[in-house]
Structures are given as C-alpha cells and as structure tokens.
Amino acid sequence: EVQLVESGGGLVQAGGSLRLSCAASGFTFDDYAIGWFRQAPGQEREGVSCILSSDGSTYYADSVKGRFTASNDNAKNTVYLQMNSLKPEDTAVYYCAAHPRKWWQPRGWAGYEYLYWGQGTQVTVSS
Questions:
Q1: Which of 60, 84, 91, 111 has the fewest CB atoms below 10 angstroms from its CB?
Q2: pLDDT of amino acid 108
Q3: CA torsion, points 27, 76, 62, 59, in degrees to nearest 10?
Q4: Mean pLDDT across 85-91
Q5: Cα–Cα distances in Å, from 56 out to 22, 51, 110?
Q6: What is d(CA 81, CA 36) in angstroms, rounded to the nearest whole number?
Q7: How far apart are CA 48 and CA 32, in angstroms?
Q8: Which residue, among 126, 105, 96, has the nearest Cα to 23 in the 3D structure?
Q9: How far is the C-alpha of 98 from the C-alpha of 32, rounded, in Å?
Q10: Which residues pair with 32 in a beta bridge?
Q11: DSSP 8-state symbol, 55
C-alpha cells in the first residue's frame, strides 16, 4: 500500500521557520518525483517545490525561492521541506505527492496530476 505521511506543520510567527517531513512507503522512492503543494482556503492548489530523490535535483515556485529548501533522506524514504522567513501568505495546508519519473519532466513540474498524495499538514503563519 502506497502511503505518504506529512508532519511538522504548526503555528509560527512571521519570520520564523518550520520543517515539514514526508515519509513515503509502498513504492520505490527513486522512481518517483516528490512534490510539495499547498492550498489556502478559497485558493487553488499551488506547487511549492519538487525533488528527485534519485539525484537530489530540486525545483521551486518563484514565491518560495530563497526561503524554502527541499531535501531527501533516501535511507528513510523521507523528503523534507525546510521553510524559513515564513510569511502570513505561506499559510496553507501543505501536501506532499509522488509521481512516477517516467511520466514526469522538470518543465511544468507543478502541473502534473501527481499519482499519490498525503493527507496534508496545516501551516499557519501569524503576522
């Protein structure tokens, strides 16, 4: 059974940091691109970042470049999203998702309908 389990969300003041984790199981980690997405109330889902566990390549939305960093620990089948300099507009439910690399290209990484999704974790940034 494929599972993606996010953790690490919470309430933080503007300017603070959080690290999200996404623990994956039930599939071969290296064969998938792992994306981070977020959705705020009343807004469309937004791609935040993506990482290829096979080589560590990372991709980011312009809105988070320089503030967020994705990383992976292949031994633990886990990817992380380090979020620094958080802003109130970063408030959202954050999801990790997995998509087979054979159906994935870097260009347009945020636009794929990722195959597997986690349940999400709430991030709230107060001003």
A1: 111
A2: 87
A3: -60
A4: 98
A5: 15, 6, 17
A6: 8
A7: 17
A8: 96
A9: 6
A10: 100
A11: T
pLDDT > 70: percent of the chain: 100
In this structure, what token pair is assigned to residue 50?
A: 């993506």
Residue appearing with tokens 């980011």: 60
Following DSSP, what letter does each residue of 75-118 receive, concatenated? GGTEEEEEE-S--GGG-EEEEEEEEEGGG--STTGGGS--SEE-
Take residue 24 and report the two structure tokens written for it.
């994956």
pLDDT at 30: 87
Both structure tokens of 87:
């802003």
Neighbours of 59 (CB within 10 A): 18
CA dist., res. 99 & res. 81, Å (int): 17
Name residue, tokens 């633990």.
76
Residue 44 has pLDDT above 90, yes or no: yes
User: Do β-strands 10-13 and 121-126 pair in parallel, antiparallel, or remain unpaired?
Assistant: parallel
Cα distance between residue 24 and residue 62, in whole Å: 26
Strand partners, 36: 49, 96
Length of the chain: 127
Average pLDDT, the chain: 95
Residue 70 CA, chain-centre distance (Å), reads 7
